[in-house]
Specification:
Number of strands: 29
Largest sheet: 8 strands, mixed
Number of helices: 18
Strand order of the largest sheet: 11-12-13-2-1-14-27-15
Shape: globular
Helix content: 10-25%
Strand content: 15-25%
Structural class: alpha+beta
Radius of gyration: 27 Å
């Protein structure tokens, strides 16, 4: 099976709006049902099959969260994946030397689909099989991600019949199954257990899922019959399950779905989330709406709308006009940050000191001053002043450098990297009459201190400030606007990075010596990227090792022995959150020094909600959003 490489999608920031409004009623028999209306600027088109890479607009993502559940792990208020005890009766995790890790799950026998049918282990096993099956890929005609990369998945995918055995999965009984993956057990990150069950009797009527000699397989149909069944149930000329999931297992189920309106009603078969919580609100309507900001605010004031996600489209002036007796508000940074990322093998940013100097030149304290903190590690690393701590090379906990604006420090670092003004040994370099710094390369030729930053949008205030500050110290920065696809292809070096045929186990010096500028199609050495990460903190899953140099995963073209060792140590710890946190703090300290992130917008979000909405905590983060919280809410007079 073709593996999808880890990549950082560079996306154009979009303005999206959600509205949650209601008609009042309580849940006592005979009274009017409680109905919430969710308004959006987008329509309802897209795909509801969970693991597709591109599933449509945010409406579809929202609906999927409300109609799906019963995964063996739950994303909790602590923003961790934890075993979902509503679903799982027992779990065993066993490491098998030379094979991998086997997860054996026994699910409870009281789970039901929205149509009343029992949920069994075949609905989990079939889900894993489908998302690794070539016939499913053919029917979907779209890039999708496997929910679990089990042992034997490549061979299973490459069996074009779709009827082979998936050896990494075992069907033990009606309520017990297992799967095996490469590597050691990981109790720190349980997201590998995030397996959404799907109703196999609906998706594959007449097809049996059986335990064969080596693994599980589909049985009872030929290849052509199986493909026809999958097409009719999943695709069916835009009428199939991927467009209208008729049987689901979340707190809500679909009552109707049109291009501009989706109606969800409470699923009476739902026994609760990971805490056993069931929804109080009877109906949610998601609807495409139009209107000006003032009209929306007026609707909130009048009580027609109970909840509104305004994104970044509301000002302090707007908020000051609200009647706080009727409307409450909460503000937080979501987990997307627009950032400048480097290719650390090109131009002046191949020197750490220049990368740090650029960070000191950016006057982004308003952006840098807050942390999204959407990883538990960041929250656990905060001191009493809200600073995130790392562990330095001596083992001491220290506040991570925020690189607050300091031009003198930037000059010191640039000169440390060898960039000076022209003198008798080298002709002065000029650009539009402005003097530039230079450094002599190994051939003794002056190399000008010039950097091209490729961006989607100019964000003039921030970029103009950076360009002007750099100009004052002999550093020329050019801001070049390109479309999102061009930036992505350049940043990920899709068309060539100048490193051809790198031998296995090549050293850093050997890789650099292989560089061929003729095959390097990258336009610049710095790019705008949108990170869904903790602000200023790097996720160690993004490689900084030699084995994935360039577009294989090390998109920063960066190597540092200490950083690589810290990343490997972090990846090796799977049995203790305490040890993992300590390794994470060591990694962050080195990363913060080697490759400072350069944010220029954090996409602050403002939530407005009616005071009658009880149980709503405010969107604590982008991850723990209203779709998780709404089943805890009710509306009172």
């Amino acid at each position: 099976m073709k593996k999808l490489k880890l990549m950082l999608l560079i996306i154009l920031a979009s303005f999206s709006i959600f509205v949650l409004s209601s008609c009042k009623g309580d849940n006592t028999p005979g009274d009017t049902d409680t109905t919430f209306v969710v308004g959006s600027v987008m329509n309802m088109t897209g795909s509801f099959l969970t693991y597709e890479m591109f599933s449509g607009g945010d409406n579809i993502s929202t609906i999927k969260k409300l109609i799906n559940d019963y995964e063996p792990v739950a994303f909790t208020k602590n923003e961790k994946y934890e075993i979902n005890t509503t679903v799982v009766e027992d779990i065993k995790i066993v490491e098998e030397e030379g094979i991998g890790t086997t997860y054996t799950l026994k699910i409870k026998n009281n789970l039901k689909w929205s149509n009343g049918d029992k949920i069994t282990s075949k609905d989990y096993v079939g889900s894993i099989m489908l998302f690794n099956n070539s016939l499913f890929y053919d029917v979907m005609s779209q890039n999708i991600l496997p929910n679990v990369n089990v042992i034997g998945s490549d061979e299973y995918y490459n069996d074009d019949s779709g009827l082979g055995e998936l050896v990494g999965v075992k069907l033990i009984s009606d309520y017990e199954f297992s799967f095996t993956v490469e590597g050691k057990p990981n109790i720190v990150d349980l997201s590998i257990l995030k397996i959404t069950p799907y109703p196999m009797n609906v998706l594959m009527p007449g097809v049996s899922i059986v335990q064969a000699n080596k693994g599980v397989k589909f049985e009872g149909k030929t290849t052509e019959e199986l493909k026809d069944i999958l097409y009719k149930s999943i695709e069916n000329d835009f009428q199939g399950y991927r467009y209208y999931p008729s049987v689901t297992c979340g707190p809500y189920k679909l009552e109707s779905l049109k291009n501009e309106e989706c109606i969800l009603v409470k699923n009476e078969e739902y026994i609760g989330n990971y805490e056993g919580q069931k929804p109080e609100i009877d109906k949610i309507i998601i609807k495409t709406v139009s209107g000006t900001k003032d009209q929306i605010i007026s609707s909130i004031q009048s009580g027609v709308i109970d909840y509104y996600d305004f994104g970044s489209g509301i000002t302090e002036s707007d908020l000051s006009k609200l009647d706080t007796n009727v409307v409450n508000s909460t503000t937080f940074n979501n987990n997307t940050v627009m950032n400048i990322a480097f290719h650390s093998d090109k131009g002046p940013v191949r020197f750490k000191e220049v990368r740090q100097a650029i960070a000191y030149l950016m006057d982004n304290k308003d952006v840098y001053g807050d942390y999204s903190l959407n990883q538990w590690m960041a929250k656990e690393s905060m001191d009493e002043n809200g600073n995130v701590l790392g562990i330095d090379l001596s083992g001491k906990k220290v506040v991570l450098n925020k690189y607050e604006n300091d031009v003198d420090k930037a000059v010191e670092l640039i000169e440390k990297a060898g960039y000076i003004y022209g003198d008798a040994d080298c002709s002065k370099l000029y650009s539009n009459g402005d003097e530039l710094r230079y450094r002599k390369n190994k051939e003794g030729v002056g190399e000008a201190l010039v950097l091209d930053i490729i961006v989607i949008d100019r964000y003039d205030y921030m970029f103009n400030q950076l360009v002007d500050s750099a100009k004052q110290i002999g550093f020329k920065i050019n801001i070049i606007v390109r479309d999102v696809t061009t930036i992505q292809n350049n940043y990920l070096a899709y068309y060539g990075d100048g490193y051809d045929n790198i031998p296995e186990n090549a050293t850093y010096e050997e890789i650099l010596n292989l560089y061929n500028p003729e095959t390097d199609k990258r336009e610049g050495a710095a790019y705008q990227c949108n990170y869904k990460l903790d602000l200023m903190l790097e996720n160690a899953s993004f490689s900084t090792g030699l084995e994935k140099w360039g577009n294989e995963g090390n998109c920063y073209f960066l190597y540092n022995e200490l950083l690589d060792a810290a990343a490997k140590e972090l990846d090796s710890i799977r049995d203790s959150e305490e040890k993992y946190l300590e390794a994470w703090q060591k990694y962050q300290y080195i990363y913060n020094d080697e490759l400072p992130m350069l944010p220029f917008n954090t996409m602050e979000k403002v939530i407005l909600f009616n005071n009658k909405l009880k149980g709503f905590e405010g969107e604590v983060s982008e991850n723990w959003d209203w779709t998780y919280q709404i089943i805890y809410c009710e509306k009172t007079e």
